[in-house]
Amino acid sequence: MADITRRLFLRHLRGAPTSWVRHYVRGRVKHEGIGQSFWYRPLTAVLSEVPVEDRELPLLFHARTSDFADVTVQATVTYRVAEPGACPPTDSSSTPARAMGTAAPAASKGSSGRSTSCRTRSPWTPAG
Description:
Helix content: under 10%
Number of domains: 1
């Protein structure tokens, strides 16, 4: 998790070595990478942070069998983001909200006319 300190009209972000940070100003990337540290203006900046270490998510399922017996199954899903910067916005019509997890079209045409779809290769890989 990043640490943000305040100095008058500016903010200073100190990223953890286990998080990948991207900083946008006016729709363009100013800083990105693991463990970044930089000053920014909060009124014009958009920040996104992605953890790059292994994450565990415990799950618990409850079910009832045909003879009305309660069954509980425990599971743990472990995951990590392999390439956090794999799908950057490519044209000026892209908004920083795409990087923050909102819905985006499957493919778009960049300024070069090529398809810039990130659905061809998944940045998610199972840990282990």
